[in-house]
């Protein structure tokens, strides 16, 4: 394990799916500072893939993270990227052993579990970081900078939109891991805990005092299944399948982001136990959950939800999560102040500020996002890992 100013920060990855595998790439970027020395994941393909990436010896590759708990502490930190309802148990167990924790969002699915994680980390003097990576994106930082500068006066309202994307919602929240609240978490928590965090971040020291929320599961139920539609998209009559925007054949094979367009990453990579190709993806649609009709499943999470918030001093905010959109996670935000407003849509190269006094529009240019490993979320994944590694290496823990 590392000492201040000495050696590498060493890590264990618990959950080697998309997020855990992504964070492990930090070793490729900063090999002199960071090393993953163990991995635990129940899926053979996922743990073997990460093992190869980080050159982990066979005796440090595990099916179950519980196999590690009886050992003396042998790494500086643990990166926990399990499913939502499986966050608390490993976080508490590893904190009690003295490991610093990098915990994928949401930190837990209940307030009680969140508080227990924090309490145990405090009792054992370990550093806890929750992966709200969007705080590190250039546009989020620029909006906060403009607010803090007083350029738009006092913030009185924030309107925030999270357009999930019609096929993304079908993939993750109808067919996928987050389709049922009792097995994962509510869709708002799974998808928009980032967004609630951003609103509170932009509001600064003002605390949320009142909340109201309304949501509904629309469309994805048995009542909307077309007559004569099959239970699997590959078996569906062509005249029905061709008219369905949620067809698994379209999403995973024929059209973007399907395998035939050359995409071998998300979402097709989720379907198979090995590297995806046309044959393995087709077999997954024939036998697995991602090939089932979206109108035949037991999904119960909200497809759209609104949240209204009031903060100290009277400022208000509204958050809308909508599953039925063309845009996929291209967030839109408007911040209204007493002297101006801020506008931004994810993907723009500038944050727009309007000055009420002069009527002028100011375009605040953003740095181009990096390419390569950990470039996700506009480079925020890399920034998060930089901050986490620096804190551990230099014992510089913010309180």
From TrEMBL:
What Pfam families does the entry give? GFO_IDH_MocA, GFO_IDH_MocA_C
| GO MF assignments | nucleotide binding
Cross-referenced PANTHER family, in alphabetical order? BILIVERDIN REDUCTASE A (PTHR43377), BINDING ROSSMANN FOLD OXIDOREDUCTASE, PUTATIVE (AFU_ORTHOLOGUE AFUA_4G00560)-RELATED (PTHR43377:SF2)
Look up the domain of life of the source. Answer: Eukaryota
Q: Where is the Gfo/Idh/MocA-like oxidoreductase C-terminal domain?
A: 144-351
* Domain Gfo/Idh/MocA-like oxidoreductase N-terminal span(s) in chain numbering: 12-131
Gene this chain is encoded by? LOC111130029
From the Swiss-Prot or TrEMBL record, give the protein name. Answer: Uncharacterized protein LOC111130029 isoform X3
């Amino acid at each position: 394990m590392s000492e201040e100013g000495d050696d590498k920060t060493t890590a264990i990855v618990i959950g080697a799916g998309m997020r855990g595998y992504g964070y492990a790439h930090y070793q490729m970027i900063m090999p002199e500072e960071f090393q993953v020395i163990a991995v635990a994941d129940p899926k053979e393909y996922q743990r073997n893939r990460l093992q190869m990436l980080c050159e982990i010896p066979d005796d440090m590759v595990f099916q179950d993270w519980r196999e590690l708990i009886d050992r003396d502490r042998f790494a500086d930190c643990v990166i926990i990227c399990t499913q939502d309802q499986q966050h608390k148990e490993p976080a508490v167990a590893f904190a009690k052993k003295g490991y610093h924790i990098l915990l994928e969002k949401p930190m837990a699915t209940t307030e009680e579990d969140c508080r227990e994680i924090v309490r145990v980390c405090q009792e054992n003097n370990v550093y806890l970081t929750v992966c709200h990576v969007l705080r590190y994106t250039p546009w989020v930082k620029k909006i906060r900078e403009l607010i803090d500068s007083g350029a738009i006066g006092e913030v009185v309202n924030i309107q925030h939109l999270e357009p999930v994307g019609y096929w993304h919602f079908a993939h993750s929240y109808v067919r996928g891991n987050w389709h049922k609240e009792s097995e994962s978490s509510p869709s708002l928590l799974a998808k928009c805990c980032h967004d609630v965090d951003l609103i509170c971040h932009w509001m600064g020291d003002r605390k949320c005092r009142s909340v109201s929320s309304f949501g509904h599961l629309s469309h994805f139920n048995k009542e909307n299944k077309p007559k004569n539609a099959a239970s699997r998209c590959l078996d569906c009559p062509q005249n029905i399948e061709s008219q369905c925007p949620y067809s698994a054949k379209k999403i995973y094979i024929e059209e973007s982001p399907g395998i035939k367009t050359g995409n071998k990453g998300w979402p097709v990579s989720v379907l198979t136990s090995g590297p995806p190709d046309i044959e393995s993806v087709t077999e997954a649609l024939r036998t697995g959950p991602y090939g089932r009709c979206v109108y035949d499943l037991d999904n119960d999470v909200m497809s759209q939800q609104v949240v209204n918030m009031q903060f100290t001093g009277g400022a208000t905010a509204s958050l809308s999560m909508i599953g039925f959109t063309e845009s996929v996670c291209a967030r839109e935000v408007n911040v209204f102040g007493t002297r101006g407003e801020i506008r931004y849509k994810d993907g723009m190269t500038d944050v727009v500020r309007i000055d009420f006094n002069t009527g002028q529009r100011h375009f605040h240019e953003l740095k181009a996002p990096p390419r390569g490993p950990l470039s996700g979320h506009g480079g925020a994944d890399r920034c998060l890992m930089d901050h986490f590694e620096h804190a551990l290496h230099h014992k510089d823990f913010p309180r």
